[in-house]
Design a protein that fits this description.
This protein is of the alpha/beta class and about 350 residues long. The chain is about 35% helix and about 25% strand. α3 (about 65-80) crosses α4 (about 100-110) and α8 (about 235-255) packs across α9. It has helices at about 30-35, 40-50, 65-80, 100-110, 125-140, 205-210, 215-220, 235-255, 270-280, 295, 305-315, and strands at about 15-25, 25-30, 55, 85-90, 115-120, 145-155, 170-180, 190-195, 200-205, 230, 265, 325-330, 335-340. Bound molecules: coenzyme A (COA). The site of coenzyme A has 19 residues, from α2 and α8. Coenzyme A binds next to α2 and α8.
Length: about 350
């Protein structure tokens, strides 16, 4: 008797981004307001980070609410209905409930039926990780359309008295619909991690030590300390500048694309100086438009690439059908880069 064989799932030959959308919180926090919390100056913040203002979410602008708003725009641009979505991936490090994943609530609110929905934790590389998963799901035949969301309320994890982080982080959501394509729309993902540097961007402590045992940790009547994000800026800066330019080049090489063929460079909006150093290392021609959304948005981790992408398309800096190099990198440390066709 011949052994029964499993019929393999078969998917689309290629995938691409069909639509992108963003949500920016209403409240603008200019540098002047940050100066009420930390000893700094507008000039220092602008020259060291490129940030002039950031958006912080209000009580109504939850992780789910911002995601639903951003996803609605992406779905509309893709011209599909929510029922066609066969997977919802939410990249975030600031959904403060351990379980369930926020993705299921978002899928329900959007009307995605019984689509599989899950969260991933890959910090500022989260959108790229999600894109890679979506590409695999579509080409592997496990979904036709996948919604990838990058969303953060980093203000909830920011210590307003910490000079090294208070000025950097912002809140927001960005979403993309990934679906089948007749031509390649997402190049090989160059992704990876370096756990030896896990402590350079991290929460100060785990939830259990922070909350479950405040007396044991801080003594009877001790104060519960909120586990904020802490960052050792210089090693992060050095790693980003030296290592990430190489990763970006690998993504170009793997896609068979040269820097001068790009219609946009959309790096994670971590710091304007990191972006400038990468441009130099990549020898990016001046003609290639570069995302500089950080100036008004701050560093929104997983949301930063789709938010910057949406803005470049809206302002006409980049155009549908152009090739864009995206690269995300951050806490983990983790990274992900790819060449994509803009929706
Ligand atoms: C955070 C960052 C902007 C700090 O810049 P830096 O040049 O490394 O700053 P340093 O910590 O070395 O401090 C340099 C000086 O600025 C001062 N300084 C630090 N924070 C300051 C602040 N918020 N305002 C004003 N001065 C500040 C320091 O006291 C120090 O002063 P000194 O030279 O008199 O001793 C920078 O390290 C950085 O961008 N790192 C990468 C961060 C990043 O991208 N994170 C996201 C990754 S996802």
């Amino acid at each position: 008797m011949t052994k029964p064989q499993i019929r393999p799932a078969t998917g689309a030959r290629y995938s691409r981004i069909h639509g992108v959308g963003g949500y920016r919180p209403v409240r603008v926090i200019p540098n002047a307001e940050v100066l009420e919390w930390i000893d700094s100056s507008d000039e220092w913040i602008r020259t060291r980070s490129g940030i002039t203002e950031r958006r912080w979410a209000g009580p109504e602008e939850s992780v789910a609410e911002m995601s639903v708003q951003a996803a609605g725009k992406a779905i509309a641009q893709a011209g599909i209905s929510a029922e066609q979505i066969g997977g919802v991936i939410v990249a975030t490090v600031s959904h403060l409930k351990q379980t369930p994943a926020i993705a299921t609530e978002i899928a329900e609110r959007l009307g995605c039926g019984t689509a599989p929905a899950f969260d991933i934790s890959a910090a500022c590389a989260g959108f790229g990780y999600g894109l890679g998963l979506a590409d695999g799901m579509i080409r592997g035949g496990n979904a036709e359309y996948v919604l990838v969301i990058g969303v953060e309320r980093l203000s909830d994890l920011t210590d307003q008295s910490d000079r090294s982080t208070a000025f950097i982080f912002g809140d927001g959501a960005g979403a993309a619909i990934v679906g089948p394509s007749d031509t390649p729309g997402i190049g090989k993902l160059i992704w990876g991690s370096d756990g030896s540097q896990a402590d350079v961007i991290t929460q100060t402590e785990a939830w259990d030590t922070a909350f479950a045992k405040p007396d044991a940790v801080n003594g009877p009547g001790g104060e519960t300390k909120w586990p904020y994000l802490r960052m050792d800026g210089q090693p992060v800066f050095r790693w980003a500048v030296w290592e990430m330019a190489k990763v970006a080049q690998q993504a170009l090489d793997a896609a068979g694309v040269t820097a001068d063929q790009l219609g946009a460079f959309i790096p994670h909006q971590a710091n304007m100086r990191i972006t400038d150093a990468m441009i130099k290392a990549l020898k990016l021609p001046e003609s290639v438009p570069v995302a500089r959304d950080i100036a008004e948005t701050g560093n929104t981790s997983a949301a930063s690439i789709p938010l910057a992408m949406e803005r470049m398309l809206e302002t006409g800096e980049a155009h549908s059908g152009d090739l864009a190099l995206i690269i995300g990198f951050g806490a983990g440390l983790v990274y992900a880069a790819a060449v994509v066709t803009l929706p």
